[in-house]
Amino acid sequence: MAEQPLPSRAEDFAEWYNQLVVRAELADYAPVRGCMVVRPYGWAIWENIQQALDRRFKATGHVNAAFPMFIPMSFLEREREHVEGFAPELAVVTIGGGETLPEPLAVRPTSETLIGYMYARWIKSYRDLPVLINLWNSAVRWEKRTKLFLRTTEFYWQEGHTAHATEEEAEEEARRMVGIYEEFAVTEAAIPVIAGQKSDSEKFAGAVRSYTIEAMMGDTRALQSGTSHNLGQNFARAFDIQYLDRNNTLQYCWTTSWGLSTRFIGAIIMVHGDDKGLILPPRLAPYQVVIVPIYKSDDERAQMLAEADRLAQELGGFRVYIDRREEVTPGYKFNDWEMRGVPLRLEIGPRDVAQGTVVLARRDVPGREGKLTVPRPGLSERVGTLLEDIQAALYRRALAFRKEHTFEPVDYPELQESVERGFALAWWCGSPACEARVKEETRATTRCIPFDQPGGVGRCVVCGLPADRKVIFARAY
Predict the structure, then answer these.
(1) pLDDT value at position 2?
(2) What angle do CA 279, 422, 452 make, to 5 degrees?
(3) Contacts of 362 (CB under 8 A, 6+ apart)
(4) What is the pTM for the complete model shown?
(5) Strand stretches in 114-198, DSSP E
(6) Assigned CATH topology for domain 406-474
(7) Where are the domains of the chain?
(8) Fold of the domain spanning 13-272
(9) CA 426 vs CA 81, 411, 414, 437, 441: distances in Å
(10) What is the b/e burial string over 55-64, where b = at least 16 CB atoms within 10 angstroms of the residue's CB?
């Protein structure tokens, strides 16, 4: 029953990822091109992400709602930059109920236009503002090249949409939400991200400014992991979202949108995983502890399963799973749960019961170094401490990896070399021509202009002209 090992990450990172997603039962390929089926284990991770984000959204005054997935094509055409940005990715319905529709309907690529139409109906006065709504739904973008979780025709996400009375409030909202994404990534997913602003060429279609969190994957490529957009008054003017201010003067609203999707699961896989499979951060793992009973006879089996049940009750404050499978060996179970990335494995056998101990194995520390024998008294506290240690260790390791693979080139040849090996943090004059040259000649893009800037001035790494900002250049998913 032994399976072939995964390809090593060094040998073939892409194939390692593809096989791992399927073999760990996170997702599978759907019969519709480019779509995925998210399996229960993968969906459990998404549910934990949802809960962690939802708490944060509601703590900042946001509420959830639901909007249709179908959008009249005329809505998309009202905001020219927006429709041009999404036109190549649209899925369009032209027939319904066996009849040609009077107007084609786009399957939701994102909801700004539909939101704009509804907000124009709901918002009349300054007393109606701000409107702070979040949606949990799916979106469809007809991608040419797809990869499970990272880029699929249909994907699951949250999309927040807000309306404000002033430009300052909208900007504060857009920055607040990218800050929430950053804190979530660090605290819950143990992923160090770089928060910053997108360049004009990389911003969201229809936005005035776009903000992002960018993460380095295990192959040193970048992944845009969450975005927040200040839409200015672009959509408010397109959809006539106006309100009467305190002086009884009609004003256009200022709007924002922001989103994080199931691609974040791909980030967790690629940031933390190793050649044996997943390593899940404890705070998002479907199971934080898996209990593997070890026995040789039927009598021992009954005894060990009873002990496992008692252990699960002792560890009631954690997400615990007892592996009761009889058709496979303990060794197979160990390897299986290593591939699935469960943070902590607990082994219990007759000798452990006699000695009043259990064996704990950390997923983030391979081999014997990660195993320790601990007494039963105080087990819950020990497990809690170990899970926090694992969470912190994963973050430290990911941060060290990013630092090791981030370079600060001083000229263009150094930039070309740097993006072959990771992130290039370099001065940029802001010229679209310099940005386009890097993209054309190196396949690297400006991932973001980090909020954390060194100050002062330097020379653009491309053209040598004065520059007052540093940006992250990198190849990306």
Answers:
(1) 56
(2) 90
(3) 343, 344, 370, 371, 386, 390
(4) 0.96
(5) 131-140, 154-164, 193-197
(6) Translation Initiation Factor IF3 (3.30.110)
(7) 13-272, 289-385, 406-474
(8) BirA Bifunctional Protein; domain 2 (3.30.930)
(9) 29, 9, 10, 15, 16
(10) ebbeeeebee
pLDDT tens-digit series, residues 329-359? 999 999 999 999 999 999 999 999 999 999 9
Q: Is the pLDDT of residue 78 over 90?
A: no
Distance in Å from the first CA to the final CA of the chain = 35
Tokens of 445: 């893009």
pLDDT interval class at 85 (50, 70, 90): confident
User: Domain 289-385 is of which CATH architecture?
Assistant: 3-Layer(aba) Sandwich (3.40)
How far from the centroid of its chain's Cα atoms is residue 388's Cα? Answer: 21
Quick: pLDDT tens for 262-280: 999 999 999 999 999 999 9
Q: Got the DSSP string for 400-418?
A: HHHHHTEE--SSHHHHHHH
- The torsion angle over the Cα atoms of residues 166, 170, 171 and 177, rounded to 10 degrees, is 160
Q: Which amino acid is at 413?
A: P
CB burial string 456-465: b at 16+ within 10 A, e below? eebebbbeee
Q: Do 289-385 and 406-474 agree at the fold level?
A: no
Flag whether pLDDT at 443 surpasses 80.
yes
* Tokens describing residue 360: 């704990």
With H, G, I as helix, E, B as strand and everything else as coil, classify residue 166: coil
Under DSSP, is residue 429 helix (H, G, I), strand (E, B) or coil? coil
Tokens of 32: 């519709």
Cβ pair 285, 318 in contact under 8 A: no
Residue 79 has pLDDT above 80, yes or no: no
Q: Tell me the two tokens of residue 234.
A: 């672009």
In the numeric block, which tokens belong to residue 335? Answer: 């390897």
> What tokens appear for 285 in the block?
């793992």
284: left (phi over 0), alpha (psi -120 to 50) or beta: alpha
Q: How confident is the model at residue 243 (pLDDT cuts 50, 70, 90)?
A: very high
Integer Cα distance of 281 and 334 in angstroms: 18
pLDDT in tens, 117-152: 999 999 999 999 999 999 999 999 998 899 999 999
Residue among 9, 31, 6, 10 at smallest CA distance from 19: 6
Structure tokens at 49: 């992400």
Give the C-alpha distances (Å, rounded to integers) separating 31 from 40, 148, 277, 377, 432. Answer: 18, 13, 26, 51, 41
